[in-house]
Write a structure and sequence with these properties.
single chain, alpha/beta, five-stranded parallel beta sheet, two-stranded antiparallel sheet, about 10% strand
Length: about 280
Amino acid sequence: MRFAYKVHSRFLLWVMLVSLMGPGITGCATSNSVSSTDKQQLAQQSILSALWVHSAGEYRALCHQAFNIAKLQLDRRLSYHRGIDKPLAIIVDIDETVLTNAPYFNRLITGGEAFPSGWNAWVGESAAQVVPGALAFLKYTRFRGIEVFYVSNRSMRDGLTATIDNMVKMDFPFADQHHLLLKKASGNKQPRRDSVEQTHEVILLIGDNLNDFSLIFTDKSVAQRNNAVDMMSSEFGKRFIMLPNPVYGDWEGALYNYQWNTSNAQKLKIREHYFYQ
């Protein structure tokens, strides 16, 4: 089911005024209203990318393309799987990889808020929908006798039951406590990937964030992330399958040196700085 974005007309009018008037709109406002305006401006900058995910055929095409490539690579790997004691497995992320949270981000944008505001409540609704192509591919993976492990930074404490309910509702294979490796304390996914590789041969990793693939991308600067991608370019479309996500991710965290508590005003300046580089 596709979620219909309903951005209030007053909010859109405000966005247009901010875009036209620029920084001067806060010239004689109080510090509280300046902060509020900064927050709203950060939110409205996400409208186009969220709209692209919601409505662009190109987004759906890229998702289908990613899972088509994953299927080709899975079949290729199975064609020469001989004499290996470990069973085969794939590791996939959840959010924006197999489940889309478009309605949640619509709420953030229309409310002028930012993640993680309302996140646990949204997860608790178990209402996320399927990323195009994801379900068919994962069912095919199970059909070919390969296990699926979901390595996600959803909270084990706050989100496990609701996430399983959501995925069972959507008919995902291996949607159980054993195969969902959610975050306990650290957001570092490598130890959880390592735990799977101790018992299985992992033939594919699928995600929307570079951190879904390797520790080499973690906590790196913008330039270092780009260099690492180039250095490992042969893995993409082969062992690493990337899904499109222009709305959020560590690509943004890298802009702020992963200081997510950076003030809204400073985030706006940093974004502008990178844009005009």
